[in-house]
Specification:
The chain is of the alpha+beta class and 182 residues long. The chain folds into two domains: 6-55, no CATH class; 58-180, Endonuclease, Chain A (3-Layer(aba) Sandwich), CATH 3.40.960.10. It has seven helices and nine strands. The protein has helices at 48-56, 64-75, 107-110, 114-117, 125-148, 158-163, 165-180; strands at 6-7, 13-15, 22-23, 29-31, 35-37, 81-82, 93-95, 100-105, 152-157. The strands form three sheets. The chain has a four-stranded mixed beta sheet with strand order 6-7-8-9, with helices on both faces. Strands 1-2-3 form a three-stranded antiparallel beta sheet, with no helix packed on it. Strands 4-5 form a two-stranded antiparallel ribbon. 15% of the residues are buried.
C-alpha cells in the first residue's frame, strides 16, 4: 500500500492521493480507539473466488511455452517424449537415447530472481514462500540426480522461450550435437 493510502471502512477500498483503487476482499474494521484494523483486509485485487479460479487454470504440463519449444524442435526433426514418467523429475521434453532432459520453468512457481521477487508476494506469503522454495530444492535435486546418471539437463525460463526461442533451440541443438559426438 502506498503512503497516504488507507482503507475506507464503508467501501472496503483503498484510496489516497497517489494510490490506485484496490478492492479489498474483506471489509476493513474501524476501531475508534485504534484506527483501522487491517487484519481483516486482503491486498489482493481479485476476490477469493476469482483468485481460486485463476490458480486452478494454471497448467502443469503442455503450457504454451512448452508447446512452442516442442513444436519448434519437432519442425527441426528432433524427436522427443513429453513428460516421460520413466525419467526422474518427469522432464517436459526428453530425448532418451541421448540422455537429454529439458525443463521449461515458470518464473513465478520456480522463483526466478527469488531473493528480490519474493517480497512482491503480498497474500498468503508463508504458503507461497514455502511452496516456491520447495520447488527450487526439488529442481536442484532433480538436476543433481540426472547429472549423476550422465544426463544433460537444460532448464529454460518460460519467458526466455517466449522472447528468445531461436537461442533456446540453438542451445538444445548444440547439446544434441555434443551428445551424438561423445
Amino acid at each position: 500500500m502506498q503512503a497516504g493510502a488507507h482503507p475506507d471502512a464503508l467501501t472496503g477500498t483503498f484510496v489516497g492521493a497517489n494510490a490506485p483503487t484496490l478492492t479489498a476482499t474483506k471489509r476493513a474494521c474501524f476501531l475508534s480507539t485504534h484506527g483501522f484494523n487491517t487484519k481483516f483486509v486482503s491486498m489482493d485485487v481479485l476476490t477469493r473466488e476469482q483468485r481460486t479460479k485463476n490458480m486452478k487454470a494454471i497448467k502443469s504440463k503442455n503450457t504454451k511455452m512448452e508447446v512452442l519449444l516442442a513444436k519448434s524442435l519437432w519442425a527441426k526433426g528432433i524427436r522427443y517424449r513429453k513428460n516421460d514418467k520413466s525419467v526422474f523429475g518427469k522432464p517436459d521434453l526428453t530425448i532418451k537415447k541421448l540422455k537429454i532432459a529439458i525443463f521449461i520453468d515458470s518464473e513465478y512457481f520456480h522463483g526466478k530472481d527469488w531473493d528480490k521477487e519474493k517480497y512482491r508476494i503480498k497474500t498468503n506469503r508463508e504458503f507461497w514462500w514455502k511452496k516456491i522454495e520447495e520447488n527450487q530444492k526439488r529442481d536442484q535435486l532433480v538436476n543433481s540426480y540426472l547429472v549423476d546418471k550422465d544426463w544433460k539437463v537444460l532448464r529454460f525460463w518460460s519467458q526466455e522461450v517466449h522472447k528468445n526461442l531461436n537461442l533456446c533451440i540453438d542451445e538444445v541443438l548444440t547439446i544434441i550435437d555434443k551428445q551424438q559426438n561423445a
